[in-house]
Design goal:
single chain; 237 residues; alpha/beta; 6 strands
C-alpha cells in the first residue's frame, strides 16, 4: 500500500497487518516506513517497506511488479498516497496542476494496471483507492486535488466492470475531515467552524478509514465493487 508512513496510511497498514496480511509499505521516505513496519512486527505482524517517489510512475509500476514476483501473489492493493498544491484555479500553475494529477491519479492507474496481472492469474484481488470528500463536493482552492479524487470514481468503476469476471473488486473510500497532520494545520478556529456541519459532531479518526478499508479487503465484501464509500460523519448527506 502507498502513503503508508503516517496518518490514514499508517492506520490502514496496522489494521491490515492485524487481520493477518503481510503488508508491503510504500512511501517517499524510508524512515517513516521503517517506524510503521517496526510497529507491525512488534505486534506480531509481518511487513516490509520500500521507498518510492510515486511521481515516477515507471518506478512505481516496476516496484509493484517486483513485489508480486517476490511473493508470487498480490491480493490487495491500497492506493492512499496523495499530495496537495492548493490555490485558486485562476492562479494555479500548470506545474502545480500536473504534479497533483500525476501523484493522485496517474500513479493510481499505473499501480492498478501493474497489480491486475498477478490478480488475474490468481482470479482474486481487492483494489481500494483512497479518494476524498473534495472529489464529491469540490473544494475552493483545490481544483487539481478535487479533479484527481473525482476521477478515481470513474477509474474504479471502470476497473470494477472490466475485472469483475476475474473476482477482482475495485472500490473507493472517500474520507471527510479526518484527524491527521493536514487537518491539524487548519487551526482550532477553522475546525470549530467545520464541526457544526458534521452530523456526528466530530472529526473522523484514521481508524475509521482503516476499518472501512479492512472490510473492503475482506471476504465479507466479495460482492461489493465499483462503489464510492463516503466516510465523513454525514458531512455530505
Amino acid at each position: 500500500m502507498t502513503g503508508a508512513s503516517r496518518g490514514i496510511g499508517r492506520a490502514i497498514a496496522l489494521k491490515l497487518a492485524q487481520d493477518g496480511n503481510h503488508v508491503v509499505l510504500v512511501a517517499r521516505s524510508q524512515g517513516g516506513l521503517e517506524t510503521v513496519a517496526a510497529e507491525i512486527t512488534a505486534s506480531g505482524g509481518s511487513a516490509e517497506c520500500h521507498a518510492c517517489d510515486l511521481a515516477d510512475c515507471t518506478a512505481y509500476a516496476a516496484l509493484v511488479e517486483q513485489i508480486s514476483e517476490k511473493h508470487g501473489r498480490l491480493d490487495i492493493l491500497v492506493n492512499n498516497a496523495g499530495i496537495t498544491k492548493d490555490g485558486l484555479a485562476m492562479r494555479m500553475s500548470d506545474e502545480d496542476f500536473d504534479a497533483v494529477i500525476n501523484v493522485n491519479l496517474k500513479s493510481v492507474f499505473v499501480g492498478c494496471r501493474a497489480a491486475l496481472r498477478p490478480m488475474m492469474r490468481a482470479r482474486f484481488g481487492r483494489i481500494i483507492n483512497i479518494g476524498s470528500i473534495s472529489g464529491i463536493t469540490g473544494n475552493a482552492g483545490q481544483a487539481n486535488y478535487a479533479a484527481a479524487k473525482a476521477a478515481l470514481a470513474g477509474l474504479s468503476k471502470t476497473l470494477a466492470k472490466e475485472m469483475g469476471a476475474k473476482s477482482i473488486t475495485c472500490n473507493v473510500v472517500a474520507p471527510g475531515f479526518i484527524e491527521t497532520d493536514m487537518t491539524e494545520a487548519l487551526g482550532e478556529k477553522i475546525k470549530e467552524q467545520i464541526l457544526p456541519s458534521i452530523p456526528l459532531r466530530r472529526l473522523g479518526k484514521p481508524d475509521d478509514i482503516a476499518a472501512t478499508v479492512a472490510f473492503l479487503a475482506s471476504d465479507s465484501a466479495g460482492y461489493l465493487t465499483g462503489q464510492v464509500i463516503v466516510v465523513d460523519g454525514g458531512l455530505s448527506c
